[in-house]
Design brief:
Elements lengths: L1 H36 L1
Length: 38
């Protein structure tokens, strides 16, 4: 069970980091657009 959990987390962690980075990029882009539109 512990081995499975380790495998699960090692596959999920990079995905979560990638999603977080995408979110940050999207937030920065959206903030830039809102700043330019006004």
């Amino acid at each position: 069970m512990s081995g499975f959990n380790r495998k699960f987390f090692t596959t999920i962690q990079p995905l979560a980091i990638r999603i977080k980075n995408k979110k940050q990029i999207f937030n920065t882009i959206s903030s830039l657009f809102t700043e330019n539109s006004f």
